[in-house]
Amino acid sequence: MKAWVTYALCALFALTGQVFSASQSSTGGMNAPEQREKPYVVLVSLDGFRADYLDRFRLPNLARVMKRGARAKWMNPVFPSLTFPNHYSLVTGLHPDKHGIVSNSFYDPARRQKYAMHDGPAVTDGTWYRGEPIWVTAETQGMVAACYFWPGSEAAIGGVRPTFVMPYDDDAPNDARVRRVLEWLRLPPDRRPHLITLYFSELDTTSHRNSLNSPNIERAARSLDATLGVLIDGIDALSFGSQVNLVITADHGMVETSRSRTITIESLVDLSGIEHTFDGPVSSFHVAGGDIARARKLRDDLNARLRNGRAYLRDELPDRYHYSADPRAGDVVVIMEEAWALKRATAKLVQFGNRGAHGWDPAAPAMRAVFLAMGPTLKPGLVIDPVDNVDVYPFMTELLGLRAAPGIDGQPGRIGSMVRK
Questions:
Q1: What does the mean pLDDT of the chain come to?
Q2: Burial classification of residue 393, based on how many CB atoms lie within 10 Å of its CB (0-12 exposed, 13-18 middle, 19 or more buried)
Q3: Distance CA 181, CA 164 (A)
Q4: Tell me, what's the pLDDT at 24?
Q5: Which residues are CB-neighbours of 89 under 8 A, at least 6 positions away?
Q6: Is residue 149 within 8 Å of residue 162, measured between CB atoms?
Q7: DSSP 6-74
Q8: How confident is the model over 146-172, as a mean pLDDT?
Q9: Residue 419 gets which letter from DSSP?
Q10: pLDDT tens-digit map of 214-258
Q11: Any alpha helices (H) in 93-145, and if so which ranges?
Q12: 3-state class of 248 per DSSP?
C-alpha cells in the first residue's frame, strides 16, 4: 500500500529507537505473568501477493515455510479487495460493513466526514474503527503487542494502542523493518511482544507501476522472499525460536488493467444532487439528503448506459459481499467487471499503459491472496482448502491462547485444521 501518513502518536524513543505507546496500552508495557510462557505470532502482510505467485516464481524462503508449515490453496479477500478494508478484516475477523473501514477512502453520512488512507488525522482517530483488532485483544488480556505498520495500529481503538507501534513510513527499508521486529523479539520476557504485525508494500507498489508480465513483478517477489529469509533465520537463532508462529498472508491479488478499460462517470450520468462520489473498481455514491428517489434514478441511469458493470442500491447488493449494513458504503454502489473501472473526469488517468490493480470481486481468481504459516503446533507440509480473510483473526487467537472477541464473522475451524490437536 501506498501512503499512510507518517504521523507519530505519543512518540517516546528509547535507545533502540522504538516507539512506545505504553501509556495507552492495557499492559503498561509488561506481559502479565500468565502470558509470558505462551507462544508468539508474527503476522506478515505481503501487500498484493497473489496466491499463484507461490507456484509461478522461484521463492526458496517461502518454500521453506511451506515445507516446515502449512498453506491454504488461497485466501479469499473481503469485499472490496482493497488494502485498508482487508488489512483491518485480517486483524478483527469482521467484514467491512461491521468494522467500518469499507474502502481506502469513504464518507460517513452520520459524521458528515470523509476518511482517507492518506489523511493522518483520520487514520489515527480511533473513533473511525469498529471491532477489536488482535493487538487490542492481546493488550486487554495482559499480552504485549507490537505493530510495524498496519491500518488501525496508529489509533487508540477502544482507548487501547499496541505497546510498540511504528508510524507508517513507506520509505522505511525492508531490512530495517525486519531488524526492528527481531529487536522486539530479543527484549526481556516481561517486555517482549507475543504478537507482532509486519507489513511490506514493495510488491503492491511494483505491480501498480508495471504490467503483471513484467520481470519486475518476479524481481519484487524474490526480493521479498529474500527479506523473509532474513526474518526466518533471525527467528531460528532465538533461544525460543521454536515457540514462534510465522503467519504470512496478503490483502488481495492483482489483475492487469489499462486506460482503455477506464470509463469516466460523467460520460454516463449527471452527478447533480450527488454529494460524494468515490470511484474505482467499486464506486460509491452518496445522494444529497439520502434522497431515495434520486438514488434510484442514479442506479437506473447507470445501468442503462453501463456495459461493463452494474449499479445497485446498497440494500440490493448480493449477500455474499457483506456490504449492505453500513451507510458508509454509499447509497448507490457500482461493481465493475474484472479489469474495468469508473473514474471521475477530474481524476488522474493511467499514463503508463497496462499495469496491475485490484478492488474487484473477491471471487475472481486474480484477487486471491496467499496464506501460509509455520510454527510449533502447525502440521508440516499440509495444504488445506481455501480460507477466508476473516478466519485469520480467530486462528491467531487460538495460536496465542487468547479469548477471541465476541460476534466475529471468522470461523476458527477453517484454518484451525492446520493445528495439531
A1: 93
A2: buried
A3: 10
A4: 66
A5: 78, 95, 96, 99, 389, 390
A6: no
A7: ---SS--B-TT--BB-GGG-TTTTS--GGGTTS-EEEEEEETT-BTTHHHHS--HHHHHHHHHSEEES-
A8: 97
A9: B
A10: 999 999 999 999 999 999 999 999 999 999 999 999 999 999 998
A11: 96-99, 120-123, 134-140
A12: strand
Spatial separation of the C-alpha atoms in residues 316 and 314, rounded to whole Å: 5
Q: Are 89 and 251 in contact (CB under 8 A)?
A: no
State the CB neighbour count (10 A cutoff) for residue 182: 18
> Rounded to 5 degrees, what angle do the CA atoms 313, 282, 284 make?
50
pTM of the model: 0.94
**Cell representation of residue 23:** 501509556
Mean pLDDT along residues 269-298: 94
Q: Which residues contact 311 (CB under 8 A, 6 or more apart)?
A: 298, 299, 302, 303, 332, 333, 334
Alpha-carbon distance of 351 to 258, in angstroms, equals 9
- Walk me through the domains of the chain, giving residue ranges and CATH numbers: 22-256+362-416 (3.40.720.10), 260-349 (3.30.1360.180)
Query: What does the alpha-carbon distance between residue 391 and residue 76 come to, in Å, rounded to a whole number?
Result: 10
DSSP assignment, residue 160? B
Helical residues (DSSP H) of 69-200, grouped into ranges: 83-92, 96-99, 120-123, 134-140, 174-185
Those residues whose C-beta lies under 8 Å from the C-beta of residue 415, and which sit 6 or more positions away, are 72, 371, 384, 387, 391, 392, 394, 395
Rounded distance between C-alpha atoms, residue 185 and residue 240, angstroms: 9
Which candidate, 159, 99, 167, 149, places its Cα nearest to that of 129?
A: 99
- Please report, for residues 66, 80, 130, 311, 399, the alpha-carbon distance to residue 337 in angstroms, rounded to integers and kept in the order given: 33, 13, 30, 11, 38
**b/e per residue 51-90 (b: at least 16 CB within 10 A):** bebbeeeebebbebbbebbbbbebbbbbbbbbbbbbbbbb
Query: What is the sign, positive or negative, of the torsion defined by CA atoms of 141, 102, 246, 373?
Result: positive
For the chain, percent of residues with pLDDT exceeding 70:
93
DSSP for 256-312, please give it.
EE-GGGEEEGGGT---TTEEEEE-BSEEEEEEGGG-HHHHHHHHHHHHHH-SSEEEE
**One-letter identity of residue 295:** A
* 110: CB partners within 8 A, 6+ apart: 327
